[in-house]
Amino acid sequence: RKEVEQDPGPFNVPEGATVAFNCTYSNSASQSFFWYRQDCRKEPKLLMSVYSSGNEDGRFTAQLNRASQYISLLIRDSKLSDSATYLCVVIGPLDTGRRALTFGSGTRLQVQP
Amino acid sequence: DTGVSQNPRHKITKRGQNVTFRCDPISEHNRLYWYRQTLGQGPEFLTYFQNEAQLEKSRLLSDRFSAERPKGSFSTLEIQRTEQGDSAMYLCASSKEANQPQHFGDGTRLSIL
């Protein structure tokens, strides 16, 4: 079983739609959680950290459910520019010292006009 | 722009050749990470440095791979006797401290003929 699992998609949604992605992680002792965004043939860029209480940044809302070991990302009023691959990222318990990132395979979003 | 810089951007070489990539992290970032990403997958951790010390290597890093960060600034990743399976995007990331966000470079795309 992969440490971090995501639905690869693609999610094809019209502009203005609300779309949600989920991600599950295998190790219940994982420490930190993030969503990264990666455009085609570009480097990953940090979108937002995910906190236990849930957090919002503009149109983006991230939530963490430790009991069920999943993380979600909600995008409201989606824009064409939101089209990208969204990577779920975890820092596992063994990574506390090194802080290396464990990535999911990514969920591709295509926002259509 | 003082972001993470990697070169070359692309490298095409024949199987069996040696290749070396360079990463210049953001100035004063103590931590430097190398990741590898293949098509349709998220990046995978390879190794990391705290200043000039290489603190850990992933099991993905075979004996053909070696990384250095001699003065705690730039880093090189060398692959000896390249194989088809080495074809991937090699990403470098740096962070100021262990708990700070990692910033990625554009990556070096390696193609083995």
Written overview of the protein:
The complex is a heterodimer of chains A (113) and B (113). With 113 residues, chain A is mostly beta strands. Helices cover 0% and strands 52% of the residues of chain A. Chain A has strands at 4-6, 11-14, 19-25, 32-38, 44-50, 55-57, 60-65, 70-75, 84-91, 102-103, 107-112. In chain A, a hairpin with a 5-residue loop joins strand 4 (32-38) and strand 5. Chain A is globular. The mean pLDDT of chain A is 92. With 113 residues, chain B is an all-beta fold. Chain B is 0% helix and 50% strand. Chain B contains no helices and eleven strands. In chain B, strands 2, 4, 5, 6, 9, 10 and 11 form a seven-stranded mixed sheet that branches. The chains are: A mainly beta (113), B mainly beta (113). Chain A binds chain B through residues 4, 8, 42-46, 49, 87, 89, 97-106, and chain B through 31, 33, 35, 40-45, 48, 55-56, 91, 93, 95, 98-99, 101-107.
